C-alpha cells in the first residue's frame, strides 16, 4: 500500500517518453469540451515528441452507441486529432481488467466483500439518521478465506488506505490533498465478475504506456481512487508508476453558467456542417480556451505545438464565446486557399441554387473566392454570396433591388449597355474608366449608376464591388442580365 504522504511513487514516469490519451465515452457526439481535452493531449504529446492515443470507453453498454463512436472519430479527424495508433476499445479488454483485480485480490490489496445491497442500504440510512458521513466499513476487509460464505456472491473492493493523506501534484491544479479517511473501499469487480470503470481506466492507461493523464477536472476525485489501484499494482509487480495528472477546468458559457446548447456549444459536427466553420478556426479557438501565449489570438498549428505547455493552462474555468469563434473563422476563411474554399462551398451552393453545376461552375466559383471571402464569416455566408453568379436569367429580384429599377435608372442602364457593348478588354481598370466617363457625361455620381447596375446584375442591393461583379460574370452574361431589366 502507498505510504501515507508520498506524492510520486518510485517508478515515476518523469523521464519516460510522453504518452497521452483521449478517452471519450461514446454516449453522445464529440462536444466542445471533449474536443479541447483531445487537443490538449495531442499538443502535449507533439510538443514533447511523444505519442497521443485514443481509447473508446465503451463499458457502459446501455449508453454506448456505434453512431457516437463514428461521430467522435469523425470530429477528431476533422480537427486533425486522430490518434497515433489504432484506438483501444475498453470493453474488449474486460478479461484483462478482471485479471488485474484478481492479482490484487491474491496479494491482499483487494478483498471479497459479501455485504449485500440491503445491508449497505441499512447502514447508509443509519449514518444519515445519525447525521454522520457514510463510509463502507466492511467487516470483510480483513476476513480470512475460511470465513468466506459458500454460495454467496461477492464484489471485489480495494483496501483503500485509511490513515494519512494522499497528495496529487497536478500539473494544472497544483498540489491537491485528500485525507485518506475520505477514500472508500470502492468496487473493482462487480458481483457478476465484470470490472468497474475505475479499474478499467487504470489498467488501460498502464497497458497503453500512458505517462500523462490530461482530462476534465470532473475526474479529480477519480484520480485519488485510481491511484490506489496504481500503487497496489506497483507494489505487486513494479512498473506501475503514478501517472502525471493534469486536470483541466470545465468550459462555461459567456454568462458564467454551465455550458449548454443555449450558448452555441454544440457537437463538433454541428460546427462543421450547420455552422460552416473551418477546422483550423475551431482548432485555434479551442486552443485559446483556457490556454494562451501572451496576447496572441491567431496561432497556427505549428506555433501551438512549439509553445504549448500544460502548466500554462488556466486554473479557472474558461468561457465559451461564440462571437470570438466566428471572428476567428472569418480570419481563416480569408487565409484559406480559394480552390479548397470553392470545394467546401459547392455543396452548400447547390442547395441554394439548383442552377449551380459543380463541374461547370467550379472555375468561376474559385475565381470569385478572393472577392467573396473578404465579406464572409462562415461557409454558409460564402455560399449565399455566390448564388448570384449562378442564378438563371431572368434573375429573381429582391424587393429592394426591384425598387432601384425605376424609369430614370433604366435610362441610365440603357447608356451603360451601349458603352459596355463597345468595351473590348473587359478588365476591371477598363470597366472602371468606362463607367466613370458615363457618370461624368450624365453629371451624376458613380453610385447612381452602380446601384441599379448591381440590382440588374445580382438581383440584390449588396454584392462585391460592381467592377468585380462585371469581371466575374463576363461580358455576355453581364449584358444579357442588364438587358433583361430593360425589356
Ligand atoms: N471516459 C471519460 C469521459 O469521457 C474520461 C476518463 C478519463 O479521461 O480518464 O469523461
From TrEMBL:
ATP binds at residue 261. Residues 18-325 form the Glutamyl/glutaminyl-tRNA synthetase class Ib catalytic domain. It comes from the Bacteria. The keyword ATP-binding applies. GO terms for biological process: glutamyl-tRNA aminoacylation. CDD domains: GluRS_core (cd00808). It catalyses: tRNA(Glu) + L-glutamate + ATP = L-glutamyl-tRNA(Glu) + AMP + diphosphate. SUPFAM superfamilies: An anticodon-binding domain of class I aminoacyl-tRNA synthetases (SSF48163), Nucleotidylyl transferase (SSF52374). Monomer. This is Glutamate--tRNA ligase. It comes from Novosphingobium subterraneum. The lineage of its organism: Bacteria, Pseudomonadati, Pseudomonadota, Alphaproteobacteria, Sphingomonadales. The gene is gltX.
Amino acid at each position: 500500500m502507498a505510504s501515507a504522504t508520498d506524492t510520486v511513487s518510485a517508478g515515476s514516469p518523469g523521464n519516460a517518453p510522453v504518452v497521452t490519451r483521449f478517452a471519450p465515452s461514446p454516449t453522445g457526439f464529440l462536444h466542445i469540451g471533449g474536443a479541447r481535452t483531445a487537443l490538449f493531449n495531442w499538443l502535449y504529446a507533439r510538443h514533447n515528441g511523444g505519442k497521443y492515443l485514443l481509447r473508446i470507453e465503451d463499458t457502459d453498454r446501455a449508453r454506448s452507441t456505434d453512431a457516437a463512436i463514428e461521430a467522435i472519430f469523425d470530429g477528431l479527424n476533422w480537427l486533425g486529432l486522430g490518434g497515433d495508433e489504432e484506438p483501444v476499445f475498453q470493453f474488449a479488454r474486460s478479461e484483462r481488467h478482471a485479471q488485474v483485480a484478481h492479482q490484487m485480490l491474491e496479494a491482499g490489496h483487494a478483498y471479497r466483500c459479501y455485504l449485500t445491497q440491503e445491508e449497505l442500504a441499512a447502514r447508509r440510512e443509519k449514518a444519515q439518521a445519525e447525521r454522520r458521513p457514510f463510509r463502507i466499513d466492511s467487516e470483510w476487509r480483513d476476513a480470512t478465506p475460511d470465513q468466506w460464505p459458500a454460495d454467496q456472491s461477492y464484489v471485489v473492493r480495494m483496501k483503500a488506505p485509511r490513515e494519512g493523506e494522499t497528495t496529487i501534484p497536478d500539473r494544472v491544479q497544483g498540489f491537491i490533498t485528500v485525507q485518506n479517511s475520505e477514500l472508500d473501499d470502492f468496487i473493482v469487480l462487480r458481483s457478476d465478475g465484470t470490472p468497474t470503470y475505475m479499474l478499467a481506466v487504470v489498467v488501460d492507461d498502464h497497458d497503453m504506456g500512458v505517462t500523462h493523464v490530461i482530462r476534465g477536472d470532473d475526474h479529480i476525485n477519480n484520480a485519488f481512487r485510481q491511484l490506489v489501484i496504481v500503487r497496489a499494482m506497483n507494489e505487486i509487480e513494479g512498473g506501475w508508476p503514478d501517472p502525471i495528472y493534469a486536470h483541466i477546468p470545465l468550459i462555461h458559457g459567456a454568462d458564467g453558467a454551465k455550458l449548454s446548447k443555449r450558448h452555441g456549444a454544440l457537437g463538433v459536427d454541428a460546427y462543421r456542417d450547420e455552422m460552416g466553420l473551418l477546422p483550423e478556426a475551431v482548432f485555434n479557438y479551442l486552443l485559446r480556451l483556457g490556454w494562451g501565449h501572451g496576447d496572441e489570438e491567431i496561432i497556427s498549428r505549428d506555433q501551438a505545438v512549439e509553445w504549448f505547455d500544460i502548466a500554462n493552462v488556466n486554473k479557472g474555468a474558461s468561457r465559451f464565446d461564440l462571437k470570438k469563434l466566428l471572428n476567428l473563422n472569418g480570419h481563416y476563411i480569408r487565409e484559406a486557399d480559394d480552390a479548397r474554399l470553392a470545394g467546401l462551398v459547392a455543396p452548400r451552393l447547390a442547395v441554394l441554387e439548383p442552377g449551380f453545376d459543380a463541374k461547370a461552375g467550379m472555375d468561376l466559383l474559385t475565381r470569385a473566392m478572393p472577392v467573396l471571402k473578404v465579406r464572409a464569416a462562415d461557409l454558409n455566408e460564402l455560399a449565399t454570396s455566390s448564388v448570384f453568379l449562378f442564378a438563371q436569367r431572368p434573375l429573381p429580384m429582391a424587393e429592394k433591388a426591384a425598387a432601384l429599377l425605376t424609369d430614370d435608372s433604366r435610362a441610365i442602364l440603357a447608356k451603360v449597355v451601349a458603352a459596355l457593348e463597345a468595351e473590348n478588354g473587359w478588365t476591371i481598370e477598363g470597366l472602371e474608366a468606362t463607367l466613370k466617363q458615363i457618370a461624368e457625361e450624365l453629371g451624376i455620381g458613380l453610385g447612381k449608376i452602380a446601384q441599379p447596375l448591381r440590382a440588374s446584375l445580382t438581383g440584390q442591393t449588396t454584392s462585391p464591388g460592381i467592377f468585380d461583379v462585371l469581371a466575374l460574370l463576363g461580358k455576355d452574361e453581364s449584358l444579357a442580365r442588364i438587358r433583361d431589366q430593360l425589356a
